[in-house]
Design brief:
The protein contains six helices and ten strands. With 225 residues, the protein is an alpha+beta fold. Bound molecules: manganese (II) ion (MN).
Amino acid sequence: MVEVHAISEPGGHPVNEDAYLCEYHPAAPDCWLCCVADGQGGRAGGERAARLACQSVMQVACRTPAGMLAAAPAWDFVLQAADQAVAGDPQAGFSTLLGFCIRRGRIVGASSGDSAVVLLNRANAIVLTTGQIKNPPVGSGSAVFTAFAADLDEGWRVLAVTDGVWKYVGWDQMIGEAQSHLGQAALGEMMGLARLPRSGELQDDFTAVLVAASAEPIAAPAPAA
Ligand SMILES: [Mn+2]
């Protein structure tokens, strides 16, 4: 069983230019699909770019067999399609974009920009997106995506965040909160740390998605008829 928690709020302006989607594959309920996008601020269309990018990722990923999404080249294809979709929309600007799936003890995905995916296993925490590049951005039609993949252990958690989280919470504190609090509480702690001390305001849009192995006990097998 997998549980998903998420929090997304605008920071410093009324419109949230971050976007995320997380859902299971329609043909494979054990395959969780997740994407996060951070629309480029300071220019028109950032919010639209991020939203379109996420919608495109889910549309294409849901049409791709779950078995194929277990291989990194599939994510390059899925994210390239999103880059093209955003580039083809005259009102959309630029965005970061990451997408991944979690299935059968493994995470596989790809990214462009400066949003991040962190894998917390029992023994360690690994930032999976360290190799990604920022330019050209998603929405240019020529973004370059960097793949990642890793095995999950029994107590795994995956944290996907925009730069409004890692920049203002800090990597160590962000990882510490994800290790010491469960579910939504971990995200709430992170948001508290990102807020300015006096005004309580966020300095950037803040989006964090936490996917985790559920603490729920495994259901007992149905009694034999
Ligand atoms: Mn941001």
